[in-house]
Amino acid sequence: MGIIKEIEGYLPTLTEWRKDLHTHPERSRHEFRTSALVAEKLASFGVETHTGIGGTGVVGVLKSGTGTKTVMLRADMDAVAMVESTGLPYASRNPGTMHACGHDGHCVMLLAAARHLCSASNFSGTVYFVFQPAEENDAGCRAMLEAGLLERFPADFVHG
Known about the structure:
There is one protein chain. By secondary structure, this protein is α/β, with parallel strands linked by helices. Helices cover 40% and strands 22% of the residues. The protein has helices spanning 3-9, 11-23, 32-45, 103-120, 139-146, 149-152; strands at 48-53, 57-64, 70-76, 80-81, 97-98, 125-132, 157-159. The two termini are 27 Å apart.
């Protein structure tokens, strides 16, 4: 089974997660519900999970095989100050806050990658899944770096 077919198998679950995140957007430095949800999902996959990094940042660590190469994959979690008037059944329930920037989708894509890699285990090395808070105000990256992100989770490659 190819990667697309496998992920297609849990597309309804991924859609449910994105709609949930879209319904409950949180602004920079207030991603408490989002980071808790992300941490819970990572732990349920069997990923070693670290929380509170630079505030509400979350890092998942997945090791497979004996390889020494590391890759860091990053997604944003925060929403923007905007009134949602889409009329969608999963529209924001937080007045004046909306996932207009797509970070709800970013979180779900990274969670999907973690879920797939946990079940596939067809690599040898370490993958760090970084869920960054406060991207919209430039504070989250700095806070995670100042909290020792790269020292605690040194990566050969970083993709965001």
